[in-house]
Amino acid sequence: MAAPPPSITFSFPVPHAIMMKSMSILSFILLLSPLFAMANTSFGAENTEGIKYDLFPEILKEEAVGRLNELGKVSDANGYLERTFQSPASVRAGNLLRAWMEDAGLKTWVDQMGNVHGRAEGINPSEKALLIGSHLDTVIDAGFFDGSLGIICAISALKALNSSGRLGKLRRPVEVIAFSDEEGVRFQSTFLGSAAIAGILPVSALQVHDKNGVTVQGALRASSIETTEENLLQLKYEPESVWGYVEVHIEQGPVLENVGLPLGSVKGIAGQTRLKVTVKGTQGHAGTVPMNMRQDPMVAAAELIVFLESLCKQPDYYLSYDGQCTSSTVESLAGSLVCTVGEISTWPSASNVIPGQVTFTVDVRAMDDLGREAIIYEFSNRLYHMCDRRSVFCNVERKHDANAVVCDPSLSRQLKSASYTALKRITDEDPGDVPVLMSGAGHDAMAMSHLTKVGMLFVRCRGGISHSPAEHVLDDDVWAAGMAVLAFLETLL
Length: 493
Known about the structure:
Elements: H1 25-38, H2 57-72, H3 88-103, E1 107-110, E2 116-120, E3 129-135, H4 148-163, E4 174-179, H5 192-198, H6 216-222, H7 229-233, E5 242-250, H8 255-259, E6 263-269, E7 271-280, E8 284-285, H9 297-313, H10 315-318, H11 327-336, E9 338-347, E10 353-354, E11 357-366, H12 369-389, E12 393-402, E13 405-406, H13 409-427, E14 436-439, H14 444-448, E15 454-459, H15 475-490
Parallel strand pairs: 3-4, 3-5, 5-15, 6-14
Antiparallel strand pairs: 1-2, 2-4, 6-13, 6-15, 7-11, 7-12, 8-10, 9-11
């Protein structure tokens, strides 16, 4: 707990005439008023020297909330929010963000992967840069805050610095990046934007196609961005040019709401694997093929999905202990393992036809990378046995892999301190200890960890709900997040 701020004592010479008994109290107050005015030129809470800070509510709260709402209406669908990689709405959202970056005093550009950048060079443009970012794409039927909150908070904090004449005084460059794709909805390949910046996106990703046969390269070309294998490789930032990466994101969980605090520092992000499972059987008439002669891929897929649930609920029951899977690994899985099936499709899809093929996606997440591999191995092994027993063909493709990420301890401490400072400034009260959390969701910070040290700040969301229109962050919590980013940036002045 921080010590209470010391009080300020004003020392100044007092003319002998002022001490005359005939002097009124009012005259004495008038004499002191300019000195008090100097100590109270800004609106807000006091720092450790007793000087008041501007809390910038018009920028970090009112304007930031307004921009989140405006961005939340930029959608490719009527009646719900949907923005996928390089869709028309995604391009419009990028243009909005670029205009807001310029409003904050930043130099802007769009790169060959559709990422939107805004940069303040500071005093020393050659210094290693701090990168702050999140993603502008969404899931289908999304909320207003996932991804967008981190971008808007960063822009707002830099605008607050600019409005107070301090943007050019930063000791190192600060760059905001709105990543074009994190969710992986359109191409089933997450982190297209941040992976390109980090230098871990293979050039083969340009030829990955969506459900309509449009490739990543084709989607970029439709947005007037000509991306080749050569200039894709040139997007990679050199590690020597980057000081660190910070991301602000809604928690997507209930912990902060339960402890009654709007902000928390993140110590790590769970590893993630996405699988695509294909089950092929024999297509036939629903009513004429006897039950004992059917090779129905739908039933096989259903059995596999139910087994996956059992495996991930009770990993200790299915996993054997050997040199690769120890008891400590299994114990770690018990606290962090999550397995879900998010998409199922059949061909053909008709009520009176046994489908010939079923595909479904599997998402496996855990803080222990070895344990996650053990789960995938066990699932794949059982899958082939089940498919053989049912006389259907099965195939498993790994569509995405990301190892667990441990946030940089120093950055985490700085973000925790900045959160404490922000909450104390806004409430003028001691907020207590800022919690430290784990993340079960994937974030651009996972890709950026291949480039530089990373830190994350979580923001409270109502009910822990995310990827839903019910996603909600209080206006005051948006303010607190912006203040935390500002307090963090002030350490670079």
